[in-house]
Design brief:
Elements (H helix, E strand, L loop, with lengths): L4 H8 L22 H10 L4 E5 L5 H8 L5 E5 L6 H9 L3 H8 L3 H10 L6 E4 L3 H10 L6 E4 L3
Parallel strand pairs: 1-2, 1-4, 2-3
Helix pairs in contact: 4-5
């Protein structure tokens, strides 16, 4: 696992809550294809740090963590509260999630609950991607791989 002081300082800016959010986790993941290429890469290389932009509920994050022994993932998504989340869940057969996604931090809390067991290796960054990429660089954190899964 990445142990640098710079990474530790960056990670400290994005702490996990002290308790697991009281929402249901989900294994709902979007996959347009290609994630197997990333899995192959992380299995064949000694990656210390992956940055994923656009993490939704963490399906890819969980995949990266499961397939590595020490890689950390900086998970970037604004998780902006919006009616879109619950409407999208209903339209895709996930009615059980709709109510929790309507709450102010429902999408973010769903991500946290869904990746809770991996929190030592995941940095949840609730921000927009362009600005946070500059922040990662300014912090001196040098990721081994970027995975862009966003609009």
């Amino acid at each position: 696992m990445l142990k640098s002081t710079r990474f530790a300082q960056f990670k400290s800016c994005y702490p996990w809550p002290p308790e697991k959010p009281a929402v249901h986790p989900t294994d709902w993941s979007l996959d347009g294809g290609g994630k197997e290429l990333v899995v192959d890469k992380i299995r064949s290389a000694k990656l210390e740090c992956i940055v994923e932009i656009g993490v939704f509920f963490g399906g890819s994050v969980r995949k990266w963590i499961i397939n590595t022994s020490g890689t950390v993932v900086i998970a970037v998504d604004p998780w902006v509260p919006s009616e879109w989340w619950s409407e999208y869940a209903i339209a895709n057969g996930h009615e059980e999630l709709a109510a929790q996604l309507r709450s102010a931090d429902g999408p973010y809390e769903t991500f946290l609950a869904s990746t809770w067991e991996m929190r030592e290796r995941v940095v949840p960054v609730k921000r927009s991607s362009p600005s946070v990429l500059y922040e990662i660089a300014e912090a001196g954190v040098v990721p081994d791989l970027f995975f862009f899964d966003s609009d």
